[in-house]
Amino acid sequence: ISIMAEGRETAAIQGLIVNLSKVLRYVSSTEERTATLGMETEYAESYLAAMRARFGDSLEYVVDVPEALRDIRVPRLVFQPFIENCFKYATSTRPPWRVELRGRAAEGRWEVEILDNGPGFPDETLAMVRQRIAAREREGRGLPPLSISGMGVVNSYERLKLTFGGGTIFEVGNRAEGGARVSIGARADA
């Protein structure tokens, strides 16, 4: 913001402050443990717009979550760890960086994908996530113990399982064309 102010980019600063305010308000609210997909989508759009102000034309993003999905209740901040991972890892490659949030409903289920065009997940990371999720399945419900690496992914998985039970959709992997892909959702009847 300081650099933008030096350049007298007042319109851009105003937009950035509005988006940062929305992000901070949403993150700091402790009223509810769940939110609608619409609220989560709006938060993600504000976060991505703030990151676009930071990275400029180096960042492209698409948010496409149909209106029909926006009333579904989900754990709050369920997209956040995955969107943050996009910036943590995808920006290690040359720009332009692309982040996509795409929702769809079909065949009795709804799903939201978080996609990027970065290097994708290393095989050892995917193996570790799958191992931790399998361990959580064996151990039963409840939030996972805190750890530094992979905590956000496993925590998001567990919160989705607590909300949707056996109807949970949770996939972490790489795209054939390159980049990471995370898909979360549930059967419509879950």
Structural account:
- The protein is of the alpha+beta class and 190 residues long.
- It has 6 helices and 7 strands; from the N terminus they run ααβαββαββααββ.
- It has a 5-stranded mixed β-sheet, with helices on one face. A two-stranded antiparallel ribbon has the order 1-3.
- A hairpin with a 2-residue loop joins strand 4 and strand 5.
- Helix 2 (10-28) runs antiparallel to helix 3 (37-55).
- The longest helix is centred in the N-terminal third of the chain and has 19 residues, at 10-28.
The largest β sheet comes out as: 5 strands, mixed
Number of strands: 7
Count of runs of 4 or more consecutive helical residues: 6
Which residues form runs of ≥5 with pLDDT under 50? none
**Overall pLDDT score:** 85
Oligomer kind: single chain
Helical content (DSSP H or I, runs of 4+): 40-55%
Please tell me how large the radius of gyration is. 17 Å
Distance between the termini: 44 Å
Structural class by SSE content: alpha+beta
Shape from CA axes?
A: globular
Strand arrangement, largest sheet? 2-4-5-7-6
Beta content comes to 15-25%
Helix and strand sequence: HHEHEEHEEHHEE
Briefly say what this structure is.
The chain is of the alpha+beta class.
List the helices and strands and how they pair.
Layout: H1 2-6, H2 10-28, E1 34-36, H3 37-55, E2 59-64, E3 73-75, H4 80-90, E4 97-106, E5 109-116, H5 123-139, H6 151-164, E6 168-174, E7 180-187
Parallel strand pairs: 2-4
Antiparallel strand pairs: 1-3, 4-5, 5-7, 6-7
Helix pairs in contact: 2-3, 5-6
